[in-house]
Amino acid sequence: MQDLSLKFEKQSTLTTILKFSIPSSLGAIIGMLCVLTDRYFIGQVAGREGMAAIALVFPYAMIINSFNFAFSGIAIIIGVKLGSKDREGAEKVLCTGFLWILIVGVLLTIFLFLFNIPILKILGASSSNIASAIEYTNFLIPIATFQIILGQSTLVRGIGDSVTAMGVNIFTGVFNVILDYLFIIKFDMGIGGAALATLIATALSAFYILFYFFKSDVITFSKKYFSLDLKILKEIFKIGSPRFYNQLLQSSVITVTNRQAGVYGGDIATAAIGIISICRSVMNTSLQGFNQGTAAIISYTFGSKNYERVKEVLKIQLYTVISVSTILVLLMLFNTEKIVSFFIKNDPPLVEFTVSAMRLNLFLMPFTAMFLACNNFFQSIKDSVIATRFFMLRIVILNIPLVYILGYFFKEIGVWLAFPISDTLVAIVMFFLTIKKIRKISPDN
User: Fold this and answer.
1) CA 150 to CA 399: how far, in whole Å?
2) What are the residues whose beta carbons fall under 8 Å from the beta carbon of 362, sequence distance 6 or more?
3) How far apart are CA 347 and CA 327, in angstroms?
4) Spatial distance between the Cα atoms of 35 and 5, rounded to a whole number of angstroms
5) Which residues contact 165 (CB under 8 A, 6 or more apart)?
6) Comparing C-alpha atoms, which of 301, 287, 247 is closest to residue 64?
7) Which residue in 178, 148, 125, 160 sits closest to 73, CA to CA?
8) pLDDT tens digits for 28-66?
9) Nearest of 239, 229, 244, 242 to residue 99 by alpha carbon
């Protein structure tokens, strides 16, 4: 077995962060650029109708992805166990976790196929767009199991192989773009072609992740450890539950936002959300790549009781995500029209509407970055209770009610402002709670 302390503890904190976070961030950014290209093809071929369908299906994709996050606890638990030199315990979690991934993935796929149309109607599908939504989800639903497996690229990073984790993400994105071009442009398969491209690219990468853990020299699949151990599943879900609930609740927020924006702004507002949501995802994904890199370090060093290093990593992480998100927001504010026009052609009213809405909805994204970094810290040290409570506060107590309250008083402008106001309030509270926690776990205490 490799001496992971050489990767996690024997180098300077900044060097370790760069080695883990740069590949993670690059992989996330390249993957998101490929998603942008995917949306570009849809926008050019299907226009406003295509972007409206994407806005409708986006919460559906988040529901599937929430199960990916439910199993994110696998990487955290294994990181802590390897930090405490418990390889046997780490391999038990690996084998049990992947067995449950397969079971949950298959059951989820069956459920979604059985209730596809009712779910789409709950999400706001109408007679004008439900056909496109069904066409897309017929290929989106089979992705479920592969997507959850592919999500374990964070585990590959967590055992010290950040380059392979980056390579998997890059391959998935680039191959997806190539297939997008073939299916949408050359074969004229429309929005269904985009979903099929994602299915094939995700499936190939998922098979590679499985192959990787059959040959890894850090931890590997072992027949004797495969079991349906409910205790391990409970621990995995306990850690992954904050992000799982967050994704489910985020899909609820987007559904509510879609509906309320449609009430006050009509179809043009729904199409605008399709563009705004992808731009928000670009910012979040860019920073989450960095957060995933630091999460691996925090989990390992927390497990080895190197609390001073945990504090150093968190400090650098906060400085970085706040600075980078501020730069991204400024670039967005000064180039909003160019960004929107990238997705839509020959529709000036939609461009003008989306530009105004995007600026209102995204200008406080640095606070979102702060919140995600702090929440990432609590998950990395296995304090899932705090992480879950703040996700609930963010979505259930603040965001969803504000969509209705501000929408009632300020129409669509209020709908756009609900997200930045709720994230800013919860980020400020969580920042001070994080400072309190890091002082509590410092060597002096």
Assistant:
1) 30
2) 276, 279, 280, 283, 329, 332, 420
3) 29
4) 36
5) 23, 24, 27, 153, 154, 156, 157
6) 247
7) 148
8) 666 666 667 777 777 777 666 777 777 777 777 788 888
9) 229
Q: Give the ranges where 84-189 is alpha helix by DSSP (H).
A: 87-114, 116-122, 130-140, 143-150, 153-158, 162-180
Q: Is the pLDDT of residue 110 over 50?
A: yes
Cβ contact 152:73 at 8 Å = no
Distance in angstroms (rounded) separating the CA atoms of residues 249 and 371: 16
Task: Name the least confident of 42-46, 222-226, 281-285, 431-435.
Answer: 42-46
- Tokens coding 273: 């959300």
Give per-residue pLDDT as tens, 362-416.
Answer: 999 999 999 989 988 888 887 777 877 887 888 889 999 999 999 999 988 999 9
pLDDT at 35: 67
- Nearest to 373, CA basis, from 277, 244, 302, 284: 284
Residues 77 and 93: beta-carbon distance below 8 Å: yes
Q: How far apart are CA 298 and CA 302, in angstroms?
A: 6
One-letter amino acid at 203 equals A
Could you give the 3-state DSSP secondary structure of residue 225? helix
Q: What is the DSSP string of 290-341?
A: HHHHHHHHHHHHHHTT-HHHHHHHHHHHHHHHHHHHHHHHHHHHHSHHHHHH
